[in-house]
User: What shape does this take?
Amino acid sequence: MHISKKLAEAQAAGSPAFSFEFFPPKTSQGVQNLYDRMDRMHDLGPSFVDVTWGAGGSQSQLTCEMVHFAQTVVGLETCMHLTCTDMAKVKVDGALSEAYKAGCTNILALRGDPPRETEKWEAIEGGFRYALDLVKYIKAQYGDHFDIGVAGYPEGCDDQKDQDILMEHLKRKVDAGGTFIVTQMFYDVDNFCAWVDRCRAEGITVPIVPGIMPIQTHAAFLRRANGMGCKIPQKWVDALEPIKNDDAAVREVGKGLVAEMCRRIIDHGVLALHFYTMNLAQSTKMVLEELELVSQGGTPTKKALPWRQSLGLSRREEDVRPVFWKNRHKSYVARTQDWDEFPNGRWGDSRSPAFGELDAYGIGLKGTNEQNIKTWGKPETLRDISDIFVRFIQNDLKTLPWSEAPVTDEAQAIRNELIDLNRRGLLTITSQPSVNGAKSSDPVHGWGPPGGYVYQKAYLELLISPALITELIDRIDRTETMTFHAVDKAGDARTNSHSDGPNAVTWGVFPGKEIVQPTIVETVSFLAWKDEAFRLGTDWAKCHPAGSPSRQLIDHIMNNWYLINIVDNDFHSSGGIFNLFKGLQVQDLDGPLSSSKPTVNGHSPKPLAELNGNHKVTDGKVFDEVLN
Amino acid sequence: MHISKKLAEAQAAGSPAFSFEFFPPKTSQGVQNLYDRMDRMHDLGPSFVDVTWGAGGSQSQLTCEMVHFAQTVVGLETCMHLTCTDMAKVKVDGALSEAYKAGCTNILALRGDPPRETEKWEAIEGGFRYALDLVKYIKAQYGDHFDIGVAGYPEGCDDQKDQDILMEHLKRKVDAGGTFIVTQMFYDVDNFCAWVDRCRAEGITVPIVPGIMPIQTHAAFLRRANGMGCKIPQKWVDALEPIKNDDAAVREVGKGLVAEMCRRIIDHGVLALHFYTMNLAQSTKMVLEELELVSQGGTPTKKALPWRQSLGLSRREEDVRPVFWKNRHKSYVARTQDWDEFPNGRWGDSRSPAFGELDAYGIGLKGTNEQNIKTWGKPETLRDISDIFVRFIQNDLKTLPWSEAPVTDEAQAIRNELIDLNRRGLLTITSQPSVNGAKSSDPVHGWGPPGGYVYQKAYLELLISPALITELIDRIDRTETMTFHAVDKAGDARTNSHSDGPNAVTWGVFPGKEIVQPTIVETVSFLAWKDEAFRLGTDWAKCHPAGSPSRQLIDHIMNNWYLINIVDNDFHSSGGIFNLFKGLQVQDLDGPLSSSKPTVNGHSPKPLAELNGNHKVTDGKVFDEVLN
Assistant: This one.
């Protein structure tokens, strides 16, 4: 969506829009950290984010990659900065094309600095001389596809302090097609407000977005303000100077000063705040909390769907996904990025647009061996493994090899049941409770437009010992409402589902709309997920030295246990799935692996071979064809 | 679906399948009557119907048309009879191709009678000699597309009484590809059972469907039995002879005899009954009731969807329709018959596959002027019109110009509200009450597979005076949950819907499936329906002589009133729609037209011109484009 449209909506609603600016980090670890931070900052609800232009080869490539990541994976509306005077036209073309392909529809058109080595700057031969040239060029090449932002300088810029000239430049950039203005940073609100009034008097009517630099430390504050030639009001000096050596105090007082400045800007009728985050979340978040634009701890944005939507070029209409990747959002986006079209309205045939291989970036287990051992320890018994899963449910661990993010609020409703299962050696990977018509505004389960009702079928996915699975499947068969798919690493697959069609497990009913069914359980994608799930476990095993008890233990589970998913189709009932497991547990959790015999109510269960032949599927890849 | 598969399912379920046979009537009125009867007999739940082959030009064409009608419009799985010895190969090709295009997948391959005029019958040069040849030919031409039935003769046939030879013929027909056997009519059950046993002993394992001729009158009974050379057991003679002049008694006693015969057949393990209906419903229905295969009055078949599915070639997967044609099923099928594909899973864009014109067969008002005047009288005041609508809701009238069928059971829940509206001159066309999660087995609202839940949004469509509509729309706007579309004959269109996307008004949630949403409200199809609705009214006016008060009255309504549909999106509430109409009524229902001023709570309402400008749509054909 165009930023100018978002700003107009905010203005119409009378509620201030805010946005974040990021820049390309220097190291790949820095990039990874920033990606995780962008992911978390999504939930603060920014209207958009900016990514600054990294002039020069690899840095400019990184800008494009960050735009793609923010737009497609994080699902944030992104504005790409683009400088022109230091770039050959062919590079500008490349950057615009990359932005286009990423689904980005907003460009901030900048002049850029002259290369450092030249004494006196000269435009590249055949290149651009002014930001104005770039505005015209983008307009000529892409028409209205891109919303084009331009820079405003309330306190002048490096090589031009004359506001008459600057105002004329600005007017020409807007007249040429600029649809919003982002200003340099400033602390002098009086000057800013006067400048806004002057813009309006000059006939510049597009939205103006003031650039706000929150305060991290006193030194950084001074360095940035002075570097930008930005006037610091005496009041700020008086408040910060005395406490300049106390970082915490500076942040706290700075928060108040910045928030006050924001309030005055808003009171002046400018309902937009653009934060120069310096790639950090904390001080921006403090200001937003102070302004009550987000609640303490961050308000999750009102969700359009139960999962994070992608804003990638061909993905904007996507509204159905399999439940399996519920805790592995980025991996799902990566594994489907080559699809030509995405499920919209209903799940299509996932066999033709195959899921991507596991080797793509971002799909394997994250973190170094050392980090992962630090996180999950060195499990040596099934009890140790069980404890790891229990601690995750208790929110004592923030990740599992199968979960990128902590346990969700939603799982709270079935927390005790999940802990109980994991304590008995039944290792839960994903779950959701049943929901029978919660309002779409419900703080835990709600999503979608107002006035609607949302629903869920209870879902549970777990790793289960091969001996226990016999009894479990028998029990599932005795219910009339449950369906399952089970498969081991080698592909021994079983199901009681009579069709390979999708089973909607989350859906919503809204005024004036078709039924929205954003989450499904389906055979082919389960088998794609199975490869990933067992691979993640095997990756975890490899964090431990070859021959170590931890590696043997985890490998043993991966090589022998089953991954099973269970849907209770009766969404009017609750707790049905957990009743299936009464008396089921892995015994001797503390003993050596060989003695970890599972029991059913104290007796040894039937071996798998005795399982009802109807469930046996000869080739896991074609559950469906075999069963039809 | 193949008949052999249906029969195998019935056998597996242990519940007898039954089927009906029809033949091409001689007159076009006879065809129309039969179509209506087939439509009603659908609800008895036959597994399939047969249409006999009308040898000779127009009659064979009629067979093809009847197959198409049964399959596509009525939605009955149909078996087309095809005789071969009296037909040139090119005609057989033509018939098979017609059956294929109609979606028919079952052929009963018969030899056929020699032409009457020839003394001794000879095969046509290059044609077929035996039914066996036809079986082989169909198999060669169409592979497994058609399920091929063959005739069985437990009591011999016209020119062959030797069971050894007949059995050999039968075995050869089955070996050549016959997948089920339909027998000639008989009354001698002992002989039939022995014959079945012999078939099995000879290695004929395909399902056997006994042909049953219910008894209408004593004369017809004797004529048919003797005509087919069919043995009448002494017991039947003894029971029927004494009462042969009392038609009612014959039917009653005959029903008992035929039912007993059916029971013995079923006890012998043959779970299929094929009724030679002679194009009549009554005596077949009596036998089925006696056998408790349908409940007294007819059990509506368990519906897969809330509306009657078509089994036409490209329509089998169709599962979404607009609600507007709820009472005009055949017209909807006719107006969409040229579509290349049909909505499946969700409603697509109905603008590209345009709705067919109103002139196609079956879309205009049915019945002669005389019949229609007999049915609906000669209304001269709005009160008379109002009474017609009230009598329809009271089930005192079986049709309206806008409803082919009597008011549904479903409407019983809102019967009093509907009567009240119509009494006040608000003329209701279609309606459904809200349903919040009824079981899919619910006798009134249920549809779809077992174990599911079904839902509806309340829906009401009515003809309303142009003066009352202003107030009504104002009231709708004051609710937060209602959406509407209104339009008059000239195309003056209004809506408060913010998108042209479909609004699901009926949906169901079932184990292991995506959400099914078979009924929607949508702009473009409403405008297609509007043309039809006003046309039906105009057709009704034309039943009355030019210049007559009735024609003037009905034309006045058609030319001035609005058609409005209203959806209450809050399906958790009930009765909301009717609250909209409190105090609204057309006054002076009994006066001349000019004085029929509507009032709102006793006051004259605002004229339409004062209606909120937001609703005004300049071109009714593009509600959506204007509003987006």
User: Anything to note?
Assistant: The first strand of chain B starts at residue 17 and ends at 22. Chain B has a mean pLDDT of 88.
